[in-house]
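Example record for the data management plan.
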Amino acid sequence: MKFLVKKQFLFFAVLFTLVILRFFFIDGGATKALYDFDEARYAEVAKNILKTNNWWVQHAGGPDDVKGLYLWKPPLHPIVIALSYKLFGVNELGVRFPTLLFFLGNCVVLFFLAKHFFQKQKIVPYLATILFIFFPDNAFLYSQGIAEQQLLFFNLLALLFAVQKKQSFSIVGGLFWGLAILTKGFAAWWVPALLIIEYIKSKNKSDLYNALLFIFIGLVVALPWHIFMYSQFGKLFIDNYVLVNTIGRSLGAAANIAPFWWYGAWMTWSWRPLIFLIPFMISSFKFQNSRFPIWFLLILIPFSFVKSKVWWYIFPASIPLLLLSLDVIMTNPFSVLLSVVISMLPIWEMGALPIKWQMAFFVLYVFGIFFVNTKIKMNATKELKNSAIVGVIIISLLFSLKTSTQNSDKNKDLKMLFTRNKTFDLSTYKMPYEASLFYSNNATIKRDDLNSRYIITKREYANNVENNYWLIDREGEFMLMKKMR
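Corresponding structural encoding:
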């Protein structure tokens, strides 16, 4: 037992050291300028928590924020960032350090989830952790100050306790599920849904009782903030939190509108090589072992119906896909090697072909693999398993590093521009406003407002306003301009 604990400790110590080194020295998580939209907005809301000392009601000064209030999402992620600011200051490291911690926490929780689900295969938890670290989407999500790693951590931790099927564990699991709701609201819905489905399969009344207890505790944790916000802001809170941010996205009222099958295309681009194991997962499907496919589809299908699509909405579906993949690696390693080779073909690169053609080729691939799998049978020898494991790890690492190189420091010049200029009455013009609001240290910012005293825009749009504004400073493609008297 002591040897096992030492082995696990050494495993995590080595991996965590490599992850932390990558965070600081490859991905530049501590210094790279904030990204517009979600990351910079969370950073600004957290900054305002410290300014107002109000930890329940979130404030922001963007043009989308009614009366200076940020009512779209729950407060837990900005609160965590605000606490990080107290340690590291109001800077990029303060924004992203919590994400790094939650990512490391997810590695540990996933290890023990895999250990629970694959009790006879001792190597699987270690493989699950390694593949999760190298999962391409994590190359971005572990080093950005958005809520996805925190949400996944509380959801996975809630699930880890819930699957123990004991009353006391269901209470603890419900507590963590409540924290997941306070991180990103309705995005935490799939955990209790999975537990209810487990009850339907087992028809065990104790499973139903534990699931209901889990849900009850979660709501006890999450509802007080929602009730407080409704008591303070009434219809304004409902309009923004429910109608705009949740129902509006579902019905296509928000941006990023994409067709139903868009996530399928994203997975063929970004979830390689694991997504290419899907045909083998389907061919080996058994109802009694259906937990992982149901978990995967429970996240993928509802979000596919949502008209507003962002790739990280389905990020939690990567966990059951990863666990399914490990099952295939252990039982059908030849299929794994074949899929790894196919996943490297250039036709799957984003933009190589129109999306519909890529999806058509993927469907042909699925049927082709079914045919090959029926004609070629190879024993799962130890050598073949080892080859499959090494192949998947290497290709996953390569795709992960490739994703890292695409995470450019695109707001570096914007950050530099604002280190020299502290402005007021500021508007962005033909560009996002979130990072400008954070770096300018303004209380508010406007968008495309040519009555503002100062505007910041990109070089390509400067000619549109040169008759009313004159250039006072520039950095790279960003230009700060002042209104002529």
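Summary line stored alongside the record: Residues 412-483 form one domain.
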